[in-house]
Design a protein that fits this description.
Layout lengths: L1 H50 L12 H9 L5 H7 L7
Helix pairs in contact: 2-3
Length: 91
């Protein structure tokens, strides 16, 4: 009877160790994949920033939203314009 409990205990230890190793392996792979995706998007952003105009002459009736649409193609980037020009954002 003592042998069966010892075998059961050792089997459980092996299963737990295998699960920990598998989880660690999967986690490290997902972290390395995220790092590659982040560097690719950073490179794309840098290239887009090089193509952007350095100056824009604000016209009457312009809002950050409309300027962002003209420059970035999306009005949602108005926050990027505000940050780049050190504008205070009030809510």
């Amino acid at each position: 009877m003592g042998e069966s409990y010892t075998s059961l205990f050792l089997g459980a230890v092996v299963v737990v160790v295998a699960l920990v190793l598998a989880f660690s392996f999967i986690k490290s792979r997902s972290n390395s994949n995220q790092g590659q995706t982040g560097s690719a998007s950073t490179t794309a952003k840098e290239q887009a920033a090089k193509e952007m105009p350095k100056t824009y002459t604000v016209q009457s009736g312009d809002y950050l939203w409309s300027i962002a649409e003209k420059i970035y193609g999306s009005g949602y980037n108005w926050v990027d314009l505000a940050n780049a020009n050190h504008l205070e954002i009030r809510e």
